[in-house]
From TrEMBL:
Entry's Gene Ontology BP terms: root development; shoot system development
Stored InterPro entries: BPS1_pln
Protein name: Uncharacterized protein
Domain of life: Eukaryota
Compositional bias segments (type: Low complexity): 1-19
Residue segments, region Disordered: 1-20
């Protein structure tokens, strides 16, 4: 759970930035396609932050600024600004969901300590996950990629798609942490309404949700920074 650390650095030259972005996007896309866990997802969020940092450096190079100021590319910049709002909305929605999920897990832990029936808390967690997944699908439908001629804009579009895929996979991972009637954290006892939850694993889940929340928060800040760089292009 290392989302709190931000030690990765981006290369400085435009050419190395291009290479770094392409390699990182390919690697991250392959990771998302494979079976991932929460730790891998946290690492993916850190990689995305580095990717967007590399892209931001490319946007700010004089050569790319000249290209992006051209009429055709300015239109692409405006379109990407619109789509960047969708990703920001997704990050906001995810952060709100993480807060609600952490509270749900905390309530579940409290119920267990008191020896109370935890069925309602489990159902609450599941309802929150379904709500998050439904909201995610609603927001993510608003973004559609178009063909772009400029390399940096193509990479921005690809990074956006990878970001959406990673956030979507996060919803899927969290939804599987607590299920009814069988799952890794909750198991039925002899009474149908009784569940025995492993406190240690629930605490680990609470910590994981916190790490994911931190990772999305850092990513959100980086996306804001990239958006400012694009807005500066339009003001030239």
């Amino acid at each position: 759970m290392a989302c709190h650390q931000r030690s990765a650095s981006a290369p400085s030259s435009p050419r190395s930035n291009n290479s770094e972005v392409e390699q990182q996007l390919q690697s991250l896309s392959a990771t998302i396609s494979a079976t991932v866990d929460i730790d891998t997802t946290c690492d993916g969020l850190k990689k995305l932050e580095v990717i967007y940092s590399c892209i931001d450096k490319m946007i700010c190079t004089p050569g790319n600024q000249v290209i992006l100021c051209q009429t055709q590319q300015r239109n692409a910049v405006e379109e990407e600004l619109g789509r960047s709002l969708v990703v920001l909305d997704l990050c906001n929605a995810m952060q709100e969901s993480f807060m609600e999920l952490k509270m749900s897990v905390q309530e579940l832990l409290l119920a267990l300590r008191r020896g109370e029936d935890a069925c309602d808390q489990v159902k609450s967690y599941i309802r929150l996950m379904k709500k998050a997944q439904k909201q995610f699908k609603k927001i993510s439908k608003k973004t559609v990629s178009d063909d772009k001629d400029c390399r940096v804009m193509m990479q921005m579009a690809e990074a956006r798609e990878v970001t959406i895929s990673l956030l979507e996979s996060t919803c899927g991972l969290l939804s599987k942490q607590i299920e009814m009637p069988k799952c890794s954290l909750v198991s039925k006892t002899f009474q149908k309404t009784k569940f025995v939850c492993q406190e240690e694993k629930l605490r680990a889940l609470e910590s994981s949700i916190g790490d994911l929340q931190t990772g999305v928060e850092f990513l959100y800040r980086r996306l804001i920074h990239n958006r400012v760089s694009l807005l500066n292009i339009l003001s030239l």
